[in-house]
Amino acid sequence: MEEVEELMAACFEEMDCECTGQISLQRFVDFLCSTGEENQLMLEVSPETAERFFVQVAKGAKVLSYDQFKEEITEGCLRVLHRNITLRHSLRKKFRDYWF
């Protein structure tokens, strides 16, 4: 159980880049859905599905707090977030290693 809580905290922190303790709908969708060159490697989630999930989890609010995220996030969504975040980090590192 502790491992799952650590994963939740890590995913939320990655999305909460402004350290406000909240994430917006757009930020959530951006992290859950694939874009650009990442598109072929990331797990597919449509923006519409991500938006519906966010609205459900946030109970209609414009932002999602860590407590709401922790209470409402599903294991499947958490796994997709973690995989996509890990992939983004890997792609950024590959780019830095290639160019610098």
Description:
It is built from 5 helices and 2 strands, in the order αβααβαα. The protein has 100 residues and is mainly alpha-helical. Strands 1-2 form a two-stranded antiparallel ribbon.
How many angstroms separate the termini? 39 Å
User: Can you tell me the overall shape?
Assistant: globular
Question: Biggest sheet, open or closed, and with what strands and sense?
Answer: 2 strands, antiparallel
Say how many strands there are: 2
Derived from helix and strand composition plus strand pairing, the structural class reads mainly alpha
Instruction: Report the order of strands and helices.
Output: HEHHEHH
Strand order, sheet with most strands: 1-2
Mean pLDDT: 82
| Gyration radius, rounded | 14 Å
Kindly estimate the percentage of residues that lie in beta strands according to DSSP. Answer: 5-15%
Parts with pLDDT < 50 across at least 5 consecutive residues: none
- Number of DSSP helices? 5
How helix-rich are the residues, as a percent range?
A: 55-70%
